[in-house]
Structure formats: C-alpha cells, structure tokens
Amino acid sequence: MALPLPLPPMSYLPPLGQEGEEALGRRVAVPFRGEVQVGVVVGEGGRPSLNLRHAIAYLDPAPYLRPEEILFLEEAARYLFAPLGQVLADFLPPFPPLRHRVRLYPGADPKVLPPGLGALVDWREARGFDPKLLDLLREAGMLEEELAFREARGVLVPLKPAHPDPQLDRVLQVLRELGFAESQAALARAAGVGVGRVRRLVQEGYIGTASPEEAAPPPADGVDVAPLHLPERPERVNGGRFLERVRVLKGLLGEGDHLVLFPEVSLLERFLAHFPGATPYHGGLSGPVRERFFRRPRGVVFATYGGLLLPFTPRSLVVVEEGSESYKLPSGSRAFVPPLAELRARLLGVPLTYLSLVPAVEVLERKGFALPVPKPRLLLLDLRRERGFPVTGRALALLRQVEERGRQAVVLSARKGYSALLLCQDCGFRPMCPDCALPLRYHREGKGALVCHQCGHREDPPLLCPRCGSPLLAPKGPGVDWIREALAERLSLPVYRYAGDGKDDLTPLLEGRPGVVVGTTALLRGPRLPDLALVLLPLADGFLLESDFRAAERYHRLLWALTELRPGRRPLLVLQTFTPEHPVHRALEAGEVEAYLWQEKALREALNYPPRVRMVKLEVRHRKEERAREKAFALLEALRAEAEEGEVLGPAPAPVPRVKGHYVFHLLLRGSTERLARLLGLLDRRQFRLDPDPFHFVGLLED
C-alpha cells in the first residue's frame, strides 16, 4: 500500500477478519510509526511474514482508485524519479477526517493496563489517548477499533438575493460571489467582519446550509459561442483570439466525458464562463466537494493538475497553455504536468490535444493547426536613445493621450516594492541581505524598509552610507511603487496598484472609467479592463534577463499574453528596452507566433538542452560554503565512472550562491529518462534535492 508521504509502497497484512476481500485500489487505515495513517492499496500478493502488521480497516466498500490510476501513479513515479507515495500525495484530494473509536476486546483485564486506559472498557473516541499507548495495545491484540470517514458538514449558501441593511447585504453579496463558505468564521474572514453579522444573517434566514455537492460557485457571465469543428483532430492548436480558442475547445469536446487541464484557476474560470455544463475541479474548492466529485467523476471536467488522477476514462484530454510555468509543482515531486498528461492519455488510450496561444518548444513538432493571429500593435523604445526615467518622454506622451481620451492603461513592472536596491553615489556601497547573496529591495511605504524577497529579512534603511558616511544613498532599479509614484505626479488620471503583495480595488476601471494600473504579472490573472488602450513595460529587459535557459521563451509567451489583455481588441504594446533587436521583439513585430520558437528549438538542440534531452537539477546546500562544495564534488565523483561526456554539468555555485543562510551548488544531468534513472541510482538521495525538468535556478527547493 502507498501512504501519501515521500515513501515507496509498504507491505501489510489485510485487516483481521477481512482476509480474501478485494483490496486493490481501496483506502485503508494502517498503523504507522505509532499512529494511524490512511493510504491506498496499490498491489496484492507476496509471501506472508511474521514481521508484517495487519492493516486496521478498509475505509471504502469499493475501490477508490482503478488499476488504470495505479498504473499511472507507478509510471509517473518512474518518470519523476520520486517515491510513489509522493506522487500520490501530490495528485490526490485531501482525505476527509476520520472518526476513530476504540475499546478493549471484551474479557481483557483493564487492571493490567497503564494508568488512564481503564476507560477503554467501553467505546471511546481515540482522540485524547496517547497514540503510542494505543499502538502497543493494538500490537498486543487487545484493542478493538472502528474507523470511518466523517460525513462532510453542510456549507453556508445564500438563500435570498439581498438584505435591507447595507452592512449585512455586503456580507451576503460576498457569499453570493463565493458560492458557498465552509463555516461562519470562514465567511466572516472573507467579508472582513465579525462572526456576529454572519450569525444574524443565518438567524434571519438569509443564509442557510446545503450539502457540499449541492453548493457550487455560480458560473460567471460569458459569451455564448458556437463550436468550431476542425477537419481532423490535431495534436496541437495555436494562435487565434481567445474566443476563437474557446470555439475550438467546444468543437474538440463534443459529447461524453472529457478532461481539460488548466495551469491556473483564473484561466480555468475564464474558460468555464463559456461552458456552463462543465464541472470545475481544483484546489480552490472545498475538500468535501473535491472528495465527493473524485468518487464519481463524469461529464466535461475543467481541472488543474489534480484532475489527472480522477478515476474515469474521458473520451479525450486537452491541455490548455501547456507552456505555462504554473504547471510546475513548487514542492513534493516537483512535477511539470504536461508530460504527465501525455503519459496519462497514452495509458488510457485517448487522444491528447494541446491548446494555446503560443505553443511550448516541446510540442512544436507535433501535427498542428494554426489559427490566424491579428498582428500586434507594437512600439519599441530604445533606452539607449530615449530620454526620461523610469518612463521615457515618448511613453509619457502616449499615456497623456490615454488621459485626454478618457481611456485605460496598464504599466507592467518586473519588480515589487519601490526599487531593486539602494546605492551610494560616492563609493558604490549597496545594502546586502545578511543571509542571501542579494541586495535588499527598497520599500518606501511608511518610514521605509529594506526587504529581502528571498528570505524575508527586513531592516531600516540607513540615513548615511555605512561605508563612507555619504548622504547620497539613492534608489536604483524602479519597482511598482516608484513607477506608480512617478506617474501619479505627471498624470491627472487615477493610478492604481495591482501586485501579489497588495491589490487596489479596480471596480471604477471595470465600470469603464479612465485610469492607469501599475502592477506585476499578477495583472495577467486579474480582471480584464474593458477600455484598455495601452500596455507599457518601462524595463522590458527585466523579464528577459533571468538565470534560466527558458527565460526568452517565457518572455515571448508573456508579450503575446499582453496583447490579449483587452477582450476583442488589441491594445498598443510599448516596450522600453535596451535590446530592441532581440529575436523575440522581431518576431512580435512580424506577428509570427511560432517563428522565434523554431529558432529557440534549434539553438537548444545544438547545445543538447531540452527538449532534445531531459534535464534534472541536483541541489546541494549547507551553511558552510566548503561543506556545500565538498558535497557537490562528492556527487560528481560518484557519477564519474558511469557518466558519459556532456551528461553532467557542474557542479557550480547557483546563480544566487547564498540563499537563506545556505550556500547552494547545482549539478545538471542530461539524458533520456532511462539514462537519468541509471545515473541517479548511483547517488545517495539524502545528499541532495532533486528537481526534474527544472524551470527556475534561483531560490531553494522546498520540501
């Protein structure tokens, strides 16, 4: 059986009295390290052993996972070089809480028990008793147990459309937007009020309860579009406008069960508005809703990565925006989902189609269908020649045209906060993070602060240079707040802020009023502005110059996504850049979605980089630099006898060599899945952290 933990499957004997029952795919409670854990049976057979313990109880009357899902888990674990239990934990919905009752077997003498266990002559809730003592009784054969999943509690749902009291009505409208809330406290937090107001709405009959499967978020208002049927089903569809891709998806789905994967909930909900019959399945839904749907999946399912394990066989599988880095799991197995979707489709024997505006380099060679793409409206401003900072004179003139015409604009920054650093104009000193090899970012709000965006270290900015005593400490590298401040001084339009660490209310803009939004790429997941005329990147190179061989492809995808920020029409895209001649810019000028990607693919093949081969990253860290280096070179030495030329890159310090007090070294392995498995088999997995198909090389791999 497999526990949802980073462990391989383990062997147990069947629960006492239930020997011979069908076990494969059922959830079962087992004793594990002194406690009770829930896992899934992934295999049967083998020779009984006196060292094996009995499982406690089956928790499902029928299999929870089919053999098809178990096979997928096993193949995915091989592909990701991860324990099967870790893959199970990544893709399963959370288990419901257990109802666990215990008592002594009738006839057992409570006098021989340790103090405090005498109450076990009658049934008692296991909670409150020492789990290790219970496990001793279990192993001695003296404990009788009853286990079952607790029934899901009802959730709060709105019963009436409005309340005459404005303050209570605001809470009711929050619930209507959410669709449901798991508790009064959860609704109070979402509405920013005390629980008393929620309780009053319940008492007055404006809010009631419903079972989790009956409570679903209301579908968003969308445009009804007719399906676009293609002559034959392609392996990928690219280009077009957003609604054209919606029409293609409608044509691909047709009748029956289908699974559509999305990288983010925001994009899922945007598509869902045009598919009222589809069922959403993602981490934003409550645990009971996901659990109940997982047990009976059907119809057209719009899901994030967890949908890959749903126990049903759809007629087809569609992966939307397969190149999005949001498909990369940040922890656990650190899987990149699209290759696993391909694995799942192949094992089920169903067709797979990639659907995106910009294809990923990895799928370029697949048989495709290209929708015509309107040529972007693009203006490149060469920062080597233009005047003005952080917004050049020509860009400011365009923003003033937006102002004069009462339109809307978006200004996109690669940095949060006020500036990338503080710099002494006399000696070049810049405050650095004491735990990371990075300059501290300057935040100007309040009294000001210097913040490390990797580890969270904060300190007050110095009044004078600590090195030379100069008062000329100046911010460098404008961020969101600097740009917003500069525009607020030069424009009479309202200027809003929209970033991951704080979002202004954009309701006036959504109602069509003029204004400017300054933000980060969080804007791509935000609401669409109805009268957007201009999108400006004051330092476009900030999105391009990253320590990642996929940075240019990511930048290419970002620019094309920006052309779709306004539904129906394309805003003017203005890029302030030191590299106007970059191939990404040239491809955008020509209106070619794929041309640059073919160049990028050829370059990677010449360098023997993905997708020609697979790559995995080994991360070694230690608080002492010499120990981290020793551990990294020990890995290289272990690989030396088996590795062929070009299969191992490094070891070398990470692009940011010190993060959160740890010195970080990387080794990169290249080859086929089978070859990488062979190389990794030579190593002690406790000495490094593994990142298959890496997307980022800055920061630490987290557990």
From TrEMBL:
Transmembrane segments: none annotated. Residues 3-93 form the Primosomal protein N' 3' DNA-binding domain. GO terms for molecular function: 3'-5' DNA helicase activity; ATP binding; DNA binding; hydrolase activity; zinc ion binding. InterPro entries: PriA, PriA_3primeBD, PriA_3primeBD_sf, PriA_C. Binds 2 zinc ions per subunit. Keywords: ATP-binding, DNA replication, DNA-binding, Helicase, Hydrolase, Isomerase, Metal-binding, Nucleotide-binding, Primosome, Zinc. It comes from Thermus thermophilus (strain ATCC BAA-163 / DSM 7039 / HB27). Its cofactor is Zn(2+). GO terms for biological process: DNA recombination; DNA replication initiation; DNA replication, synthesis of primer; double-strand break repair. The keyword Hydrolase applies. Residues 613-680 form the Primosomal protein N C-terminal domain. Initiates the restart of stalled replication forks, which reloads the replicative helicase on sites other than the origin of replication. Recognizes and binds to abandoned replication forks and remodels them to uncover a helicase loading site. Promotes assembly of the primosome at these replication forks. This is Probable replication restart protein PriA. Zn(2+) 2 binds at C433, C436, C452, C455. The keyword Metal-binding applies. Belongs to the helicase family. PriA subfamily. Zn(2+) 1 binds at C424, C427, C465, C468. Component of the replication restart primosome. GO terms for cellular component: primosome complex.
